[in-house]
């Protein structure tokens, strides 16, 4: 995978990798890992299936809806107030490991709703990155199956989606608000996605991505997240994720019911 497609999974948790390869061993009717390796040699197309089971793209609009409620009711109004006080006209968001785009688009919808009610000159940038180019392509198309939108409130669905056959298409206004690009969270050359130029994010969502990595590599990622967050910036993690050793004191938990942290100064 590394030689042919540039995917380096060496730092991922072994147990996770084993489970995923095992899936393909069963699906291809191979007897064991060795036999599967031979199968791969003779069936080059199988590599795509293997990559697909490694880069699990499961996501949904408003996944862990409590976090999104908290962002919209507490964090966004507070951030706008703080920005106004500091005469800062830029608000920057990063969805790191955005999969098919449900997460950054959920943020765009929340901001869009807020901005309809508030008059402001603040310029909003939402950067969304992933290591999976196929997922990024689908994200920029903004078309979803029912599973992705199932948890959306009816009012939001009516306002921001149109049904096209079996698919649900996101509103072009929302689509315009998100900038998708390729970025590997283990990239040693760039601390932030090059498209964002300088980082300085007010909110970073890195949810259900860290669970892939062993603790050493989680540290590399936490270091990036810490360095690219603004002072007092917010870090939103997945429900099963917590800051690793060395970063526990660098992020203080904001709220008990969801994994929302704030950069300690
Ligand atoms: C389960 S999805 C999470 C999507 C979304 N954040 C959410 O919580 O619904 C995990 C995503 O992380 C991406 N990913 C895995 N390793 C990565 C890496 N090294 N750099 C960037 N993204 C990565 C995968 O391609 C996948 O799209």
Give the topology string: H per helix, E per strand.
Answer: HHHHHEHEHEHHEEHEEHEEE
Estimated helix fraction: 40-55%
Number of domains: 2
How is the largest sheet built, in terms of strand order?
A: 6-2-1-7-8-10-9
Could you tell me the number of beta strands?
10
Fraction in beta strands = 15-25%
Q: How would you classify the helix and strand content by structural class?
A: alpha/beta
CATH superfamily of the largest domain, called what? Vaccinia Virus protein VP39
The name CATH uses for the topology of the largest domain is Rossmann fold
- Measured between the Cα atoms of the first and last residue, the distance is 41 Å
What is the correct CATH architecture of the largest domain?
3-Layer(aba) Sandwich
The level 1 CATH classification of the largest domain is Alpha Beta
Count of alpha/pi helices: 11
Q: Can you offer a commentary on this structure?
A:
The protein is globular. A hairpin with a 6-residue loop joins β9 and β10 (260-263). The chain has 2 domains: 2-54, no CATH class; 65-263, Vaccinia Virus protein VP39 (Rossmann fold, 3-Layer(aba) Sandwich). 43% of the residues lie in helices and 20% in strands. The chain has helices at residues 2-5, 14-27, 33-42, 46-54, 65-85, 102-117, 133-141, 146-149, 154-160, 172-176, 215-228, and strands at 90-96, 123-130, 143-144, 161-164, 167-170, 178-182, 201-206, 229-237, 251-253, 260-263. The mean pLDDT is 93. It is built from 11 helices and 10 strands. It has 265 residues and is an alpha/beta fold. The strands form 2 sheets. A 7-stranded mixed beta sheet has the order 6-2-1-7-8-10-9. A 3-stranded antiparallel beta sheet has the order 3-5-4. S-adenosylmethionine binds next to loops. Residues 55-59, 63, 97-99, 103, 130-132, 135, 184-186, 207-209, 212, 238 line the site of S-adenosylmethionine.
């Amino acid at each position: 995978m590394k030689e042919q497609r540039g995917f380096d999974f060496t730092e991922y948790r072994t147990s996770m990798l084993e489970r995923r390869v095992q899936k393909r061993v069963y699906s291809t009717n191979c007897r064991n890992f060795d036999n599967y390796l031979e199968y791969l040699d003779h069936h080059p197309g199988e590599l795509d299936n293997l990559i697909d089971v490694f880069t699990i793209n499961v996501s949904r609009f408003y996944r862990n809806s409590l976090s999104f409620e908290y962002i919209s009711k507490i964090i966004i109004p507070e951030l706008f107030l703080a920005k106004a006080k500091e005469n800062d006209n830029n608000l920057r968001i990063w969805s790191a490991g955005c999969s098919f785009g449900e997460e950054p688009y959920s943020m765009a919808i929340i901001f869009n709703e807020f901005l309809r009610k508030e008059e402001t000159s603040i310029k909003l940038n939402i950067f969304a990155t992933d290591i999976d180019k196929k997922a990024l392509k689908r994200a920029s198309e903004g078309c979803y199956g029912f599973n992705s939108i199932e948890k959306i409130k009816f009012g939001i669905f009516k306002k921001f989606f149109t049904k096209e056959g079996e698919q649900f298409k996101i509103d072009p206004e929302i689509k315009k608000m998100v900038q998708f690009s390729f970025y590997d969270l283990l990239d040693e050359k760039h601390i932030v996605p090059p498209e964002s130029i300088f980082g300085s994010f007010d909110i970073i969502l890195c949810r259900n991505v860290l669970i892939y990595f062993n603790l050493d590599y989680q540290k590399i990622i936490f270091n990036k997240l810490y360095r690219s967050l603004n002072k007092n910036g917010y870090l939103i993690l997945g429900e099963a994720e917590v800051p690793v050793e060395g970063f526990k004191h660098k992020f203080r938990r904001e709220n008990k019911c969801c994994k929302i942290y704030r950069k300690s100064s």
